[in-house]
Write a structure and sequence with these properties.
The chain is mainly α. It has 14 helices and no strands. The protein has a single domain, classed as Orthogonal Bundle (Endonuclease III, domain 1), CATH 1.10.340.
């Protein structure tokens, strides 16, 4: 099997075993409309903290279940309501500071972009680097949060494709895949890029993901050949 075929097999195995975006895991039906884009921003803020990804996803889900799905609703909620929702998702280590940050972020987004991240996209003029800079002006969004948002949103903002951040590249390296975004993009379809990038991040964060892929791609050993006994003449 050629090196390219082996890499594609690894990519397929990764998607088969861990092919889900973090947005989908949090229950976000991502589209290029204000509400799901804002929900993704909230998720990126939570994921960028030093806390387990599963806890961040759970906390985001609880915020959305509490109907805090738009900048206006997040802003209008009390500080305690946000703390309670975060606590329900076990996001307790940073619940108080994050509640404050989410409130400030909602106000900033509403005042500067009318609560619509598509306006931030327009301001960037199709430049991913500029988009990354503008995102970091939002309270609670640093370099890691911006990367998470852009990595996940590339499925609906195609000018970003392929967006492979440092963490996704680390996962690719663990799996023996190239770390160059262009080379990685050749291994999957355009529609799979965001999911593939998220799966690569999971490989960077969890060694068991790498083990799952190796198990799926390692061929089963061939049975030992048997020889028929011959009768003495």
């Amino acid at each position: 099997m050629s090196a390219t075929a082996t890499r594609r097999e690894t990519a397929r195995a990764l998607l088969d075993t861990h092919g889900q975006t973090y947005a989908a895991q949090a229950g976000i039906r991502l589209r290029d409309t204000p509400q799901p884009l804002y929900q993704l921003l909230v998720l990126a803020c939570l994921l960028s903290a030093r806390i387990r990804a599963s806890v961040a996803v759970s906390a985001a889900h609880e915020l959305f279940e509490a109907d805090l799905r738009t900048p206006r609703r997040m802003e209008d909620a009390s500080w305690q309501q946000r703390v309670d929702a975060l606590g329900a998702g076990h996001y307790r280590r940073y619940d108080e500071s994050t509640s404050t940050t989410l409130g400030k972020g909602a106000v900033f987004l509403r005042e500067h972009y009318g609560g619509d991240l598509r306006r931030l996209r327009e301001k960037a003029g199709g430049d991913p680097g500029r988009l990354r800079e503008l995102l970091q002006e939002l309270p609670g969004i640093g370099p890691a949060g911006a990367d998470i948002f852009l990595r996940e949103v590339q499925g609906v903002w195609p000018e970003l494709e392929p967006y492979v951040d440092t963490k996704a590249a680390q996962g690719a390296q663990r799996l023996g895949l190239p770390t160059n975004p262009g080379e990685l993009a050749k291994l999957v379809t355009a529609q799979q890029l965001a999911t593939f990038a998220a799966a690569l991040v999971r490989a960077a964060l969890d060694k068991s993901v790498v083990e799952d892929v190796k198990e799926k791609t390692t061929p089963a050993p061939k049975p030992a050949a048997t020889t028929k006994a011959t009768s003495p003449r």
